[in-house]
Amino acid sequence: MEKVRVAIIGMGQIAKVAHLAEYAKRDDVEIVGFVDAELARVEQFARSFARDSGRPVPHVYASLEDLLVNDQVDAVSVCTPNTTHAHYALQVLEHGLHLLVEKPMTVSLADAQRLQEAAEKSDRVAMVGLSHRFRDDVTAIKRFVDAGDLGQVYYAKTRILRRRGTPKGWFTHRQVSGGGPLMDIGVHALDLAWWLMGQPQVKTVSGFLTQGIGNDNVDFIGTWTPLSTGNERNQVFDTEDFAAAFIRFTNGSVLQLEVAWEVNGPQDDALKVELFGTKGGISLDPLAFYGTSHGVLTTVHSEVGMGPLFQREIDHFVECVKTGQHPLSDVRQGRDVVQMLEMIDRSSQEGRELTAP
Question: What local confidence, expressed as pLDDT, does residue 268 receive?
Fold first, then answer.
């Protein structure tokens, strides 16, 4: 395949700053079209993108079917609001196209299982946008883990705690987002810790979700603002703003999770991961290895930074499409992450620990 012909469904911020920006850096990618219900806004954006990038103006359509009638496409990025991911991702696979779907893959386990089954029946690449797996510092941690330097990882902690950082728009509307920070940033923390632990099978989950602060209009705070219209001032705010979970796995290991859009505590909004093993431990932010050597405690700090994670994610997807390579973040793993997200939410609603089926 000389050039990969790509379309993007849902032209919001993540499509613009991550998917489109990185596709546009590759000479072997042709950006053929955008699909979005807000035609006027996206048509204007398509013209400005072409002017700034020197590429042809992508065609803009209201539906994937309209796109496919008029353009030939190989691969699609699904960047729509969370509750629509399953609908569009299934459409993409049904049309025989390669798929990159943003996180969370779906907002329900039932939809995740349907998507996994569709992907397994297809010969197309089906990848989930779990971008933090593609960080340079995470790649460094994975080397320690894969080499056995940690021994058996028995406990992990992960968190993202914003003092004030609730995104504007559909994020706080559960009908559209499927949940608050758990579905937004928590999916990254949960996935990354679980993946670095070796993707153990879930045994039990205890979750706690609450709206502790809500629509708190603090001055001088910048936040994520979607390009689509609606709920610009978070008039609808029916999600949690804080989530915590305690997950036991069948191999005996345990994971603790904390995420918040806003909390009356110290700002700690970088993704933190700590892994504790029988031979050593490692942390992300700061990147450090903790162990013993020659009978003394040792701490080894690394200078590896985050790196261009979105570029590496998009490059990986394109290479998988061109070569048939299996993606680093596939839909089976996406399904397992959705199972944990759903169990955390249900556990909080029911006020009890849940056992995996």
Answer: 84
